[in-house]
């Protein structure tokens, strides 16, 4: 029965038509082979010789036993469907008695399975449909190989095909690696990213093992199957190539002459053939060269210092990496710019390449991988605009894009999610921008201060983001937003995280929420008139007994380095309640500086609001 168990597992990959050809339902149904497997495999089929007339009676006896056993199994079967099926088969076999006898002998005969490994290399695999061509006569069988032998041979090839298909599907590993790289790309705008490559490395090593076993099985079959061999070779090449990963990306904004580092990891490191060390080379390429990675880069567009590293295996971490330390860009050659395009909009990448030999493979493989896009600057003043290019690229590029294509316009909803993600990641807070902040930011970038409807589906352009200055201001939207982000990160993180700062709010909305509040009520808002400022808006009395909203001159990074926001709030007596009605000394007390000790008379700077 063990033989049938083996065969039944393998025939799962056969189409119904092939199964019907091997086990014709009208002559020898597969159910007979299944239900009588143990009895069939216990018979001495090798003793039968069809040409011997004396053996015909023995064959007849076995056929009678077969029919009898089928009827017995049918009667004992609790499943009414199986019972009726088996009874019908036994009746058909009685009717086809004279034709079935030779088929039984050749289909039951398991003897040749014992020598399968010896004969498989010299046996030609017939097309299963050829079985229909043999007449139902004794004389057609003397030169025919055992049918079970042939079935197993066909199934062996089918099994390899199925395993190859599974291997190809499992190269979704490549898809998962692409997902890992994609999430690594998105990490630049604050998206969550798990940088652990160990599970992918394990999967990669297992796939290499499966590929090797399949290639061995193909060799055992004997007959060359070029289609399968070629496909396995292609899958192997994809696996070896895709296993090169930029583990630690270089900075995406790089200033010439400034040192930086990056790490490349090879996921098949433990399978690298011993011998000569593997040396990786790094070179900087432009966007056009990145689009033709299959060819050798032409002109050298930049000079990289310390641009080689040896692939080294770390036994403790089981990782194989090449770390480029103290690398720097000595000079860069820029492409001709189009129209108003600035140097901070030009994207480059670092190309890592080497030649590697894997144990068990005859030939070395040329492999390469590029970094995420980088912007090269020559002065610190270009950093902000270069970062804007990277933010737009990371946020709005598509997977598997042509390097380094990005859309010119995106929906505001996508833009807002990017701003919120970047803000919370940079400030390292869980306190998100709220819908009031979102609406004001949209009013700001679209220059629609009176627009009260939903902005989500309105399209915002790259020019609106960081090329065109805001109306009446000398800076772009991104420059203004990035300044607020930097101020909050360095001086206002705790205030923001605890919800003490209202944040982005327009003056119209400000008047709306403060107009009915008592005098002295205040809130903290980011300045919209200068980069990196926070101001206090508060309700004060007018000379005729009315109310008005006042805005104190914004505090910048330099101001808050001199005196903290908490101390400045304590200094100003005009403000008493944080909106809507929290006493300021209860809310901000823990931010007040303690009185100095040591016997000296304290001296301090105080904030005074002019009248």
UniProtKB/TrEMBL annotation:
SMART domains noted in UniProt: STAT_int (SM00964)
Gene3D superfamilies: EF-hand (1.10.238.10), SH2 domain (3.30.505.10), STAT transcription factor, all-alpha domain (1.20.1050.20), STAT transcription factor, DNA-binding domain (2.60.40.630), STAT transcription factor, N-terminal domain (1.10.532.10)
GO molecular function per UniProt: DNA-binding transcription activator activity, RNA polymerase II-specific; RNA polymerase II transcription regulatory region sequence-specific DNA binding
All copies of domain SH2, residue ranges: 496-597
Source species, domain of life: Eukaryota
GO cellular component: cytoplasm; nucleus
Signal peptide location: none
InterPro entries, A to Z: p53-like_TF_DNA-bd_sf, SH2, SH2_dom_sf, STAT, STAT_linker, STAT_N_sf, STAT_TF_alpha, STAT_TF_CC
Keyword Phosphoprotein carried by entry: yes
Major localisation: cytoplasm
Record localization: Cytoplasm; Nucleus
Swiss-Prot/TrEMBL keywords: Activator, Cytoplasm, DNA-binding, Nucleus, Phosphoprotein, SH2 domain, Transcription, Transcription regulation
GO biological process, alphabetically ordered: cell surface receptor signaling pathway
Family the entry assigns: Belongs to the transcription factor STAT family.
Protein name as annotated: Signal transducer and activator of transcription
Species of provenance: Sander lucioperca
């Amino acid at each position: 029965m063990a033989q049938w168990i083996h065969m039944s597992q393998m025939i799962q990959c056969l189409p119904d038509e092939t199964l019907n050809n091997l086990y014709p339902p009208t002559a020898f149904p597969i159910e007979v082979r299944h239900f009588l497997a143990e009895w069939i495999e216990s018979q001495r089929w090798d003793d039968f010789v069809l040409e011997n007339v004396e053996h015909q009676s023995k064959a007849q006896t076995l056929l009678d036993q077969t029919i009898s056993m089928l009827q017995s199994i049918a009667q004992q079967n609790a499943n009414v469907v199986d019972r009726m099926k088996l009874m019908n088969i036994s009746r058909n076999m009685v009717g086809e008695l004279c034709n079935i006898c030779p088929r039984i002998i050749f289909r039951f005969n398991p003897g040749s399975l014992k020598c399968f490994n010896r004969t498989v290399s010299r046996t030609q695999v017939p097309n299963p449909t050829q079985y229909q061509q043999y007449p139902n006569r004794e004389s057609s069988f003397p030169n025919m190989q055992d049918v079970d032998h042939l079935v197993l041979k066909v199934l062996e090839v089918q099994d390899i095909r199925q395993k190859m298909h599974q291997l190809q599907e499992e190269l979704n590993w490549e898809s998962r690696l692409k997902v890992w790289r994609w999430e690594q790309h998105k990490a630049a705008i604050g998206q969550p990213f798990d940088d652990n490559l160990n599970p992918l490395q394990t999967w990669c090593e297992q796939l290499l093992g499966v590929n090797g076993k399949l290639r061995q099985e193909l060799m055992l079959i004997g007959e060359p199957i070029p289609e399968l061999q070629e496909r396995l070779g292609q899958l192997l090449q994809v696996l070896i190539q895709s296993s090169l990963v930029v583990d630690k990306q270089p900075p995406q904004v790089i200033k010439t002459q400034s040192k930086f580092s990056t790490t490349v990891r090879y996921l098949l490191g433990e399978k690298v053939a011993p011998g000569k060390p593997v040396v990786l080379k790094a070179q900087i390429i432009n966007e056009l060269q990145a689009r033709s990675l299959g060819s050798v880069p032409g002109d050298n567009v930049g000079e990289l210092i310390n641009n080689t590293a040896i692939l080294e295996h770390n036994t403790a971490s089981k990782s194989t990496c090449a770390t480029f330390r103290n690398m720097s860009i000595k000079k860069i050659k820029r492409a001709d710019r189009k129209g108003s395009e600035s140097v901070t909009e030009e994207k480059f990448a670092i190309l890592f390449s080497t030649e590697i030999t894997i144990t068990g493979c005859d030939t070395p493989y040329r492999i390469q991988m590029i970094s995420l896009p980088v912007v090269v600057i020559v002065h610190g003043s270009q950093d902000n605009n270069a970062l804007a290019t990277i933010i737009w690229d990371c946020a709005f590029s598509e997977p598997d894009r042509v390097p380094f294509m990005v859309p010119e316009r995106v929906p505001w909803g996508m833009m807002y999610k990017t701003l919120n993600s970047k803000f919370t990641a940079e400030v390292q807070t869980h306190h998100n921008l709220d819908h009031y902040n979102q609406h004001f930011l949209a009013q700001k970038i679209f220059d629609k201060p009176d627009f009260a409807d939903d902005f989500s589906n309105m399209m915002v352009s790259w020019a609106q983001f960081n090329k065109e200055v805001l109306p009446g201001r000398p800076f772009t939207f991104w420059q203004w937003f990035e300044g607020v982000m930097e101020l909050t990160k360095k001086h206002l993180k705790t205030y923001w995280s605890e919800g003490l700062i209202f944040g982005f709010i327009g003056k119209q909305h400000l008047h709306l929420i403060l107009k009915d509040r008592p005098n002295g009520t205040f809130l903290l808002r980011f300045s919209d008139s200068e980069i990196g400022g926070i101001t206090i808006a508060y309700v004060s009395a007018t000379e005729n007994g009315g109310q008005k909203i006042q805005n104190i001159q914004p505090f910048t990074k330099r101001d808050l380095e001199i005196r903290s926001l908490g101390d400045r709030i304590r200094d100003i007596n005009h403000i008493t309640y944080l909106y809507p009605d929290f006493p300021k000394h209860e809310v901000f007390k823990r931010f007040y500086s303690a009185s100095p000790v040591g016997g000296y008379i304290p001296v301090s700077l105080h904030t005074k609001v002019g009248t």
